Amino acid sequence: MIKRQNDENKDIIVIGAGVVGLSTAIAIQEKGGYRVTIVAETFPTDPKTIRYTSHWAGAHHISSAYAMSEMDKEAFEIMWRDSEPGGPAEGCFFRHNSTQYRSDGVDPTAWLGHMPGFRSVSNTELVPGTTQGWTFTTFTVYPPVYLNWLLGRFLANRGNIVRAHLQHISQAMDGGISGLPQKPDGIVACVGLGARFLGGIEDKEVYPVRGQTVVLKAPWVKYGRTVIHKDGSHFYMMPRVTGDVRAFSEGTMEEADEVLVGGVRVVDNWFPVPRGEDRDYLLEGGLALCPELAPPGIRAERTPTIDDLRPLIVEEGCGLRPGRKNGIRLGMEWLDIGSQTKIPVVYNYGHCGMGFQSSWGTASVALNLLKEALAGENPGKAKEYEIWPADYTGRRDYIC
C-alpha cells in the first residue's frame, strides 16, 4: 500500500510497460502533481518474449499515415532532441539518412515533409520496380536499451512499479494488489494486444499483426531504406547501434553495427516464433532493396544471393503488433468502483507498428484526457479523441 505524503498529488496507475506505457507514465509523472505507478506482467528488464512486443520493434521513425502526423511529429521532436550528441539518450539512437521508394502512386509529403533534409529523389536514384522516392534524415532506436532507459528515467523520478497479471481492470482500482494505491485517482490503460483479453475492456476490435525480422551483422551499411509496392507489400531495412564503441581520432563514438530487415505483415496470426520461409522472404526482399547488404568482397566478384546473407544473421525476431480495426484508441470513460464512486480510465492502445514513432504524441493526448477528467470537466461523461478527420473515408486501421 502506498501512503500519501501530499494530498495535492493524484495517484495514477498506468497499466502496461511497453514503449507506450512507459512514455505515457513519464509524461504524466513529469507534468507534476501526480504519483505514478506502472503495473505490468512484463518489463524491459525481462528476457525477450512474444508477450512483450516492444522488444521486437525495429525501430525507426518514419510516419506512414496523415492522420497520425501531428502525434508522430511531436514524438519525433522529443526523440530527436534526446538523440542529439551529448543528449540524455544519445546511445539509444542512430541518426542516418533514409530513403522511401514507392510504386503505389502515394506521395508521403504530407506526413514526411517535416523530416530534416526531406526531398524527392531523381529517377536515376530509384531502385528497380519503383516509380517515386523521397529521402530524409531520421533515426533508429535500439529497443532493449531505449526501453530500459525509459524505465530508469521513470524510477529515478520516484516512480513505482508493480509486477502483476491483471485479469480485470477493476483489480487495479480496488486495492487488492500489493503495491498499488488503495484508492487511485485515475487509471491509464496502455495494454496493447492485451486490450482484447483484459476484463473490463475486452476490445474485440484489437487483433494481432504478426511480424518477423532478421538482424544482420553488416557494419558497412549506414543508411536505411523502405519500399512500398503497388500490391501493398513492403520491405524495410535500418542500421542500429547496439553498443559497439569504436575509437576515432576525435574521441570515441558508437557506430551502427547491425542492420535489421523486416516486411512480414500477417493479420490475425498468432504464430509466436520465426518461420524459415519468412526468413527467406525477408532476405530476398532486403537484398533486392539493398544489394549492399552483402559483404563488399562478394559484391566485387559477383552478384550476391541470399545465401551470402545467411552467415551474417545474428538474430531472428517475431512479434505481434497490436492492430485495431478503427486505429488507436485514445479516449476516457468513468468506471464505477463501488460506493457510488467513479474514477476516470484513459485508454491509449492499438498502435500496431506505430508504438515508438507516436509514443510521446499519444502520451500527450492521454495526459490531456486525464487532466480534463480530474479537473472536473464533463464529470461522468465519456470522451473519445478523434484521430481521423470527419471527411476521411479510407481504412482506419494502420497498415503496419
Can you describe what's shown?
- The longest helix is centred in the last third of the chain and has 20 residues, at 355-374.
- Mean pLDDT is 91; it is low at 1-6 and 245-253.
- The chain has 400 residues and is an alpha/beta fold.
- The chain is built from seven helices and 18 strands.
- It starts with 9 loop residues before the first strand and ends in a 16-residue tail after the last strand.
- α1 (19-31) packs parallel to α4 and α2 packs across α7 (355-374).
| SSE series | EHEHEHEEHEEEEEEEEEHHEEEHE
Number of strands: 18
| Helix coverage percent | 10-25%
What average pLDDT do the residues reach? 91
Q: What's the multimeric state?
A: single chain
How much beta, percentage-wise? 25-35%
Could you say which overall geometry the principal axes of the C-alpha atoms support?
elongated
Number of helices: 7
Largest sheet: 9 strands, mixed
Quick structural summary:
This protein is of the alpha/beta class and 400 residues long. 21% of the residues lie in helices and 28% in strands.
Please give the structural blueprint.
Layout: E1 10-15, H1 19-31, E2 34-40, H2 69-82, E3 93-102, H3 109-112, E4 119-120, E5 132-141, H4 143-156, E6 160-163, E7 186-189, E8 206-216, E9 224-228, E10 234-240, E11 245-248, E12 251-254, E13 258-262, E14 266-267, H5 276-289, H6 296-301, E15 313-324, E16 329-336, E17 342-349, H7 355-374, E18 383-384
Parallel strand pairs: 1-2, 1-7, 2-6, 3-9, 7-17
Antiparallel strand pairs: 3-5, 4-5, 8-13, 8-14, 8-15, 9-10, 10-13, 11-12, 16-17, 16-18
Helix pairs in contact: 1-4, 1-7, 2-7
